[in-house]
Amino acid sequence: MNRCAAERTAEVSGKAGSPNMLRLRLVVPLVVFALTAMAAVLPSVTSAADGSVGVSIHEGADATTWGYTPTSTTIAAGQTVTWTNSGAFAHDAASTDGSWKTPLLNQGASASVSFSTPGTYAYICTPHPWMQGTIVVTPAVSAAAPVAAPADAPAADAPSPANAPSPNNPATPQPADNTTPDSNPDAGN
């Protein structure tokens, strides 16, 4: 085969050097990277939504009735509280100790704060400080710790009385019943 025929064969078969193959070599790794990045990000986005508790910011005819519903919210450490403004005026939620604050929320807007440390967090609406609420963060629920057996109960891995070592020789187990232990046939028994 001459040189020109070999070059045409390489282009048709997709060997290195063809423009289509070069594009594939660039595009495939980019697509794989993008899919990997999305798979890494999506679980954190959905888990945050699953652990979110909602608080509504409401108004009434009289400004003294404006507030948060519920006024006290209890969550586990690691959960997120999302405030949604259902009123006509801009509101926020700001801790009274200054540790966190949502932006001012216009009607229909929402903002979230995640709480990782157990405690009680009092908060107010900065433009309307008579609007008050509380977030109570309890320790995160984890797998149940193993329960210790009562002191008078036998331990699970302790030998049963039938197989307990004899008082004379702690290494020799007692027979399980009144039969004698197997004897060695070579011992002359």
What would your notes on this structure say?
The chain is α/β, with parallel strands linked by helices and about 190 residues long. The chain folds into two domains: about 45 residues, no CATH class; about 90 residues, Immunoglobulin-like (Sandwich), CATH 2.60.40.420. The chain is about 25% helix and about 20% strand. The chain contains two helices and eight strands. The longest helix has about 30 residues. The radius of gyration is 36 Å and the shape is elongated. The N and C termini lie far apart (about 90 Å).
User: Per DSSP, what share of the residues sits in E-state strands of 2 or more residues?
Assistant: 15-25%
CATH class category name of the largest domain = Mainly Beta
Assembly type of the chains comes to single chain
Please name the CATH architecture of the largest domain.
Sandwich
